[in-house]
């Protein structure tokens, strides 16, 4: 075999070492994979994967000539060979991960074919082959055997996290106190000691009490007697009766740690109460199984996914789904919503090739490249073709692997496989795109609006106006404004009567409080009392009245309904409400117009004394796990009275949008130059060869995150090189788009589940004058868009 075209390039070939990232799952510039018709080309120099469309362009840029071509072919298994094994059991509340909801993989088998390709002539050598140079043989064999970049990232993402199966060992397991009170637990026939419930029962491992669990969001479950018992006794661990197996496994919950945990001494702890695990059979559903059941019942899950309808699939440009990469539905829904906006389409679809050409050297670490890759994948239609056979059940879609890894880097939540809050992710992404906008206008400008806050001193009657930029309008949900109070009251009465009898109401009978959007807007705009307001007219603290308005109206207004809150006992809940969201809305009454005739401004230039925090109380609050800025707020507004007063304040304001923002006392002008760079991070960045001023600017832009600061510097090199040295230069005034206050609804993201950390997100978008549902990789015509059950809404301005 002629090997000359290969042997003359041996000096360009590298063998992967531990720590190298091998991109053999998909192209770094597109969503082509080894399954694509033209396969995937992996560079034997850089280990980057490229589609046939990009490999020659990459070769011309880098002169890297040798590639491993991987082509995978799917073959259908004959029907008589399918389904021989037991039905696959769903054990995890996730999609696209082992144990979760998975596409049917028993119908197909896959075969891989390898060839070594030398460019520019695409000279090919089959692999394996005899007489291959040892260096080539070793490089190719290592690439095939080593885990791909995505698989490595998955391992990193689940390290030290709970992903639905792996649970941390309870801190109480080793030295759990167990009382010698003579109790012995029978193997069956259990009943709650405080009510008549016989299901969802928990055995407290300290005193042997058998009590019912919490109520689920559909009204089923228990009456919460087990957690009430913990609050009165402090006994932390309980095991769910009916989930104990012969192998010594069971659902164990730690009330103190507020999580499902592992008890390695469970067999011993159970034997204390006379329970022999060798005789136990699992008779009740685990918490994961219950969550799965609840989410698949008729109600929120069915409504939001429109599962009761036979939906018509849609294909082509703009109708490409995103495959769920293990609880990444929050990301999928947000990205689908962004890519119906012209600003994002213009930036990340038409300029994709230009971005590639400028940054071909490190595409996997460039936010703009990965946004462009995602934009082209969603909008081109290349990955959303109508199946050739009407009965083809394989759902097309693209997996946002590189995008998820890149944007989650350095963030413990978004890098993990846990479910996350779509609203938090959207704000995080907006901030990330702003930092990487370079010299172009960031497409997120379409969301930005100016908030006007008016404070009126209660003693002097003088006023103060402050302004700040925002990207999402958070709206409270006033339950007292429900338009169907009588129906809700009647339903709650029926539910309590049924529970007293050990019965359950049909889920079809569910009555949610119905609230109008106008009520939410009125609650937002209502005047509120601000205590501890510093009045520069009096040079003292007093009470002020605050009203909030919008000083500008953006092209697209994002509305966040604050459905997640805490109850009086501090336990987190999701409000199960229906908010009537109109197709069009006029927000002119929210327009802020600044200083009005007859108003007198509070004087400027008066420097108040700095706030004083009780350091002992501050340390105690932060030790409890509350954010430092929230702790400072609590101590300021409670005047350092006591730990109890400060703790109560924190819990009452835990849902505030500025909860963990840098604290500025009300009435005090914010000083933008108060940023203090982390000294250790500053020294490490300057050690890279950058000036102290450049390093400080990077750390300020990334909130002292060292890893992100390094990325920020490399993506803002031209900006830093041209950094102004004139200390007298005035900062550029921030611009806000403004226009009509009239809007139409064009999209919404819905959430199903008891908290933002579990459940599922779906997205509904108005495209071509029809509603479309984006449920991960499934894209279909929406028959009954559940507009009243959304979580985040997007309204487009009508000029």
Automatic annotation (TrEMBL):
Residues annotated for Zn(2+) binding in this entry: 192, 195, 212, 225
Active site: 329 (nucleophile), 760 (proton acceptor)
SMART domains linked to this entry: UBA, ZnF_UBP
Domain UBP-type stretches: 168-277
An example Gene Ontology biological process: proteolysis
Pfam families, sorted: UBA (PF00627), UCH (PF00443), zf-UBP (PF02148), zf-UBP_var (PF17807)
Coiled-coil segments on the chain, per record: 481-508
PROSITE patterns hit by this protein: UBA, USP_1, USP_2, USP_3, ZF_UBP
Reactions catalysed, as given in the entry: Thiol-dependent hydrolysis of ester, thioester, amide, peptide and isopeptide bonds formed by the C-terminal Gly of ubiquitin (a 76-residue protein attached to proteins as an intracellular targeting signal)
Superkingdom as given in the UniProt entry: Eukaryota
E.C. code: 3.4.19.12
Molecular function as annotated in GO: cysteine-type deubiquitinase activity; zinc ion binding
Keyword field: Coiled coil, Hydrolase, Metal-binding, Protease, Repeat, Thiol protease, Ubl conjugation pathway, Zinc, Zinc-finger
Top enzyme class: hydrolase
Annotated family: Belongs to the peptidase C19 family.
PANTHER family cross-referenced by the UniProt entry: UBIQUITIN CARBOXYL-TERMINAL HYDROLASE, UBIQUITIN CARBOXYL-TERMINAL HYDROLASE 14
Name of the protein described by the UniProt record: Ubiquitin carboxyl-terminal hydrolase
Organism: Camponotus floridanus (Florida carpenter ant)
Native organism taxonomy: Eukaryota, Metazoa, Ecdysozoa, Arthropoda, Hexapoda
